[in-house]
Amino acid sequence: MTTLRPFTCDDLFKFNNITCRQHEAVLYGIPFYLQYLAHWPEYFIVAEAPGGELMGYIMGKAEGSVAREEWHGHVTALSVAPEFRRLGLAAKLMEMLEEISERKGGFFVDLFVRVSNQVAVNMYKRLGYSVYRTVIEYYSASNGEPDEDAYDMRKALSRDTEKKSIIPLPHPVRPEDIE
Amino acid sequence: MAIQQADKLLKKHKDLHCAKVLKAIGLQRTGKQDEAFTLAQEVATLEPTDDNSLQALTILYREMHRPELVAKLYEAAVKKVPLSEEYHSHLFMAYARVGEYKKMQQAGMALYKIVPKNPYYFWSVMSLVMQAISAQDEKLAQTMFLPLAERMVEKMVKEEKIEAEAEVQLYFMILERLGKCVEALDVIRGPLGEKLTSELQSRENKCMMLYQRLQRWPECNALAHKLLLKNPDDWQFYPSYFDSLFHLIDQSWSPPEEGEHCPEGAVHHTVAEVVRFVEERIKGEDGKESRSLRGPYLARLELIHRLRERGCPEESLLGDPLELMVQFFGKFGDKPCCITDLKIYLHLLSPDQHVQFVNRLSEAVPLGERGEEGFAFPDDTKALQRHLCVCQLSRALGLHHALDVDGKLRLIAELKAHYRHGLKFGKNALKTELQFSDMYCLMAAHVYIDLWKETGDENMVWQGLGVLQEGLSHSASNAQFKLLLLLLYCHLGAFEPVVDLYSSLDAKHVQHDTIGFLLTRYAESLGQFAAASQSCNFSLRFFHSNQKDTSEYIIQAYKYGAFEKIPEFIALRNRLNQSLHFAQVRTERMLLDLFLEADIVLSLEESVKAMSLSAEEDDIPWDNMRDNRDLTVFTSWDPKDRELTAEHRRQSLEEESVWLRIRSLTLRLLASLAGSGHAPSQQNSEIANENGVGDKSSILSGLLSQLNQTLQTANQIAEKRIQYPFLGPPSTRLAPALSSGSCQCQAAALQLSVHLQELETVGLDESTELQTQICNAFKSLVVQLQEILNKCKGDLLDMKEGKLKTWSSLLENLIFFVETVCIVLWMASHCAKILRPLKTSLQKKKKKKKKDANTAQPVVVCGFQELTGSLQDLLTQALEYIKGQETGITALKLASLSLDEYPQDEASFMKAAMDKVQSSYLRSLQEAGDLLKKRAETIKNLKI
């Protein structure tokens, strides 16, 4: 039982339901959200419970060159409050982002995830994503822990009929090499 | 370095504009604003048209927060280069940055004439819409701006020039704002609507909204159930579906004899049809191989709720709510959201069913064999979640609250046992992960709080703190543990542990506005002034940065055609600017500066000037204050009658506003003491003069009468003794400030300034009556201060029968004393400043008259000397009290507390909490003591 609707600025004031109830959810500065809302409002969707609580949200964008067949949807953030886990909400939000990317004629959808975050990696695998490449030290360290690598995971969309976009790269890349 | 490079260049090319501007940027960034500005203006007056200079000046002006100058710059540039698309477009954006909508409209059209691109045309249209939104006069919006915008779009439609989705979106916005729902519907359903493809279900959602506004219930109903067929979990359409049914029934709607029910298709216009539809959705879920969706099951409960509200007998068609909820629990009881889902429907049960309901649910929880302590535990996390859900529901039904003290203690024992047992499921959890059983721990703390509030036994709260500290040790990133710990420590008068707890919450950005109140409510009132200043600074930094941030994104929204987001961004900016918390931290930060400022003789003027504070200006948006606090940040499972209500929210905001008004008036009255030292910004002083309120004394008396009025309102509010839920908004300092007498004493001190002003004009010669009056006021201040001080005497912490007890209200009163003394001393210093020249001139006169005259002091001078003497005594007294408390608290041997009755690890967590409280009290005392010592030093300088 979920209301899925476009994210609005007023939702920023309800974010505590997501951030004060779990640790790993990142809260960005207001400019970051506004940038997405100004440029890709359709890619920013919230799930709301009937009581008005925020259950989760997804935020993404479309980018890349069409000519080089790199035009794609990107998942910037996906977060579900712990209380609303295990309901398939993340999958639903991902499905919506994929659908939007299909409509925009994207070749694939991609996302970055910490290599240590096995739960997330497995979930994305279940949703049809595979590791395209490893990005070395993509996540900068905080409080003394070492930098962490990211998987760049991809799922081909129908426009990429031969699924060329998801053929894994043989070697890891550095953050400065990705676009 | 950059400045040197620029200088080098300038030597070679004296008139290289760009180099000058770059130098100006260098100057600006090294703090030489005035020089930078002069240099920049040198270039600007030449009206440069080279791109480099223009861009550099744009950067500079933005850093100087003078965006209006950017517009001027490009106005000049487009005059000289009238066909430049680039400069025109910069001009448009420059206007956008300052919200000059009319000029934007013109700039957009000018652009379109040079380069007929659609976006430029629609920038102009959007600027009309913005003029409508920002118009004070709604009529002007409805009869001029919006119709004009509509005609501009229609022209493009007729010429078949509409290209982009954004253009249709904007057309829709205009029609919607004009209330032309039928026309809007035609657009959405017509060929133009086909362009709305980015957002999912955009057309359907818009149609639904319009049907509702047009009260086209058949269409509303047909569309809702069509969408529900597609996604039976999409909650937003169930209410529309049910609402439309009831409207159709009320209108005795019946379908046409032949043909379609309505353009959207078949309509369900009887309860039976709707019941059948919902039942079918449920059958669909029951029969599914994959995960069932909760939507249809909850829709059934929602329908019962709505039918019952209308008194429809058909409610029984859907079944017994108790059975249905038991069934729901059977299906979804292992999901953490089960409690949130069922909580809204608990009212469907009659009170005598509550126990039966919980018993039925308990039967459906698989637990293992009972252990020694008589508790049976779950074998896996799913069973744990089910058991937890039953506990949560029991609490939400008020069953916990109904227990007597022993019953509650047994319940706590059970919750703690389940908590500790459940830890085994999370042995391999990462540091950042929560434990499966954390919620038991939180609930145990809630029951301890119930007991504390009910019996007043502070031991309950120590145990609550203990269990939360224990929880935190296993689940270091549990924000709810931290939040509740933070609140409990504050209630016990201990702010020191809060600093670390809050910083580990890693609250940032918008959270400074939504939960910053947790810090700022307590830091100052508990005497942790350094932390209080810092908390205000965190919030202020956020609010200030936001102001320049938003305009950038408004511009981006124009560029990308996200027109519907533009009013939203502006509303966001307003919401933050009008935030209650923002106004509070602005005010408190300045008050703190004045309280903490040691040098009372020299620096009031300087401080006031540095804060650009002025008595005549009130920058708080009293009528549009936004309460952005997140008052539901604490997880709570309390029953409905104990939950936070809309009335609580209203009362809390009212109380906060009154308290803020007192503080803000106090601040402005202090500023008025600083005299004419600070000139208000020119514009405002002009207005003030026009209205004839520019003179100092009328400002002063105006502020004082406002303060008195506000104090009256405050008394009325305090008399109501409003109690908020423990996990809801904290009460303000208002009631204790009044009962300590500090408000009254501060007001009396500020009131003195009127008499002093009078004295200043009359002189010392013929003002015996006035002087006596002033002296009486002095005496009264001393009496009042003494009374406040008396109210904080007593031990802040004591240990009786091996139990520790806090007296946080004494600490709060001590801080009221400190604040009040600070204000009285500012007033005293102001007195001294007025009396000194008066005394000198009097002496001169006397010397002239009679050389051997009696040198008796004027009454007021004696009175003042008496005042400073008494203040000195009061400070000495307070410092002695503080010293005594410090010694007493340091000597408390917490180790000798009898915590033997508790298991060893529990006792050690409790002891740790007590240590923290002890240390915090010492710190508060030290800060208060240091401040008073500094103050005592300065009294010497008040001699006249």
Short descriptors:
heterodimer; A: 179 residues; alpha+beta; Aminopeptidase; seven-stranded mixed beta sheet; B: 944 residues; mainly alpha; Serine Threonine Protein Phosphatase 5, Tetratricopeptide repeat; Methane Monooxygenase Hydroxylase, Chain G, domain 1; two-stranded antiparallel sheet; 69% helix; NatB_acetyltransferase_subunit (chain A); nucleus (chain A); transferase (chain A); EC 2.3.1.254 (chain A)
Distance between the termini of chain B: 53 Å
Straight-line N-to-C gap of chain A: 38 Å
Helix content percent band of chain A: 10-25%
The ordered string of helix (H) and strand (E) elements of chain A is EHHEEEHEHEE
Domain tally of chain A: 1
Q: How would you write the strand order of the largest sheet of chain B?
A: 1-2
SS element count, helices of chain B: 41
| Tally of DSSP β-strands of chain B | 2
Inertia-based shape of chain A: globular
Can you say what the CATH homologous superfamily of chain A is?
Answer: Gcn5-related N-acetyltransferase (GNAT)
The oligomeric state of the chains shown is: heterodimer
How many helical elements of chain A? 4
DSSP strand (E) fraction of chain A?
A: 25-35%
Low-confidence stretches of chain A: none
CATH fold title of chain A: Aminopeptidase
Overall pLDDT score of chain A? 91
**Helix fraction bin of chain B:** 55-70%
Main β-sheet, spatial strand arrangement of chain A: 1-2-3-4-5-7-6
Largest interface: A-B, 50 and 60 residues
Instruction: Please tell me the CATH architecture of one domain in chain B by its name.
Output: Alpha Horseshoe
Strand content of chain B: under 5%
